[in-house]
């Protein structure tokens, strides 16, 4: 796995690079700003970019803008975004876009090396990795969806893990049930939320969006 890191904090940038190299991963370049990051992506053509949300010069959304541009230039690039706290608008946009090969993790999660590496590998393999704290905060701010009231507590548990980007096998392990049981719960969720199969939308993503919009208001 070839990785480029974009982070303006020198200590975090070099610490993250050292951590990944110690795990046998190939950090091919590091960047302190968005322009340097884009140059590194163009030159190195990495598999994954790890990008800070807020970068110079204004420390607002330069990292996000650079990540979007990098994906425009290199559509197969996987991106794991790091943030010091939850940027709600971006996290919601991340899921709305389909979230393939994308992740959103809080910086504090980097210190939990095993969790961070699991998220990094999931994104690199084409999946989604959303920090559980991001999911929790998004849940508290949105309007309830009446359709969600039809879901059982176990189905809501399954949806919560889906929102973190877990697949059926990982959900089964978390809930200590069979993968067949998870598949059955997901079919029931789709039915109760009136999500029929279609070529135009990913039912898992739509179900997660409904879950986030519902919020934890029961």
TrEMBL record:
Domain of life of the source: Bacteria
Domain named HTH luxR-type: residues: 144-215
PROSITE patterns membership: HTH_LUXR_2, RESPONSE_REGULATORY
Pfam families xrefs: GerE, Response_reg
Keyword Transcription regulation appears in the UniProt entry: yes
GO BP: phosphorelay signal transduction system; regulation of DNA-templated transcription
Modification type 4-aspartylphosphate: residues: 52
GO molecular function: DNA binding
UniProt keyword terms in alphabetical order: DNA-binding, Phosphoprotein, Transcription, Transcription regulation
Residue span, Response regulatory domain: 2-122
Name of protein: Response regulator transcription factor
Organism: Kineosporia babensis
Lineage, uppermost ranks: Bacteria, Bacillati, Actinomycetota, Actinomycetes, Kineosporiales
């Amino acid at each position: 796995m070839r990785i480029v890191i974009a982070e303006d904090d020198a200590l975090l940038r070099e610490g993250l690079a050292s951590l990944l190299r110690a795990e046998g991963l190939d950090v091919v370049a590091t960047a302190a700003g968005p322009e340097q990051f884009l140059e590194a992506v163009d030159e190195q053509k990495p598999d994954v970019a790890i990008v800070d949300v807020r970068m110079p010069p204004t420390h607002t959304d330069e990292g996000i803008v650079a990540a979007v541009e990098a994906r425009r230039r290199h559509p197969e690039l996987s991106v794991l975004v790091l943030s010091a706290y939850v940027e709600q608008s971006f996290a919601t946009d991340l899921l709305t876009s389909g979230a393939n090969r994308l992740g959103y993790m809080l910086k504090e999660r980097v210190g939990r090396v095993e969790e961070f590496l699991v998220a990094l590998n999931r994104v690199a393999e084409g999946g989604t990795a959303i920090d559980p704290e991001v999911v929790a905060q998004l849940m508290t701010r949105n309007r309830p969806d009446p359709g969600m009231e039809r879901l059982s507590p176990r189905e809501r548990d399954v949806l919560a893990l889906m929102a973190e980007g877990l697949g059926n096998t990982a959900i089964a392990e978390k809930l200590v049930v069979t993968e067949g049981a998870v598949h059955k719960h997901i079919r029931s969720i789709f039915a109760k939320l009136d999500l029929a199969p279609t070529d135009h939308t990913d039912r898992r993503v739509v179900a997660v969006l409904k879950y986030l919009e519902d919020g934890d208001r029961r």
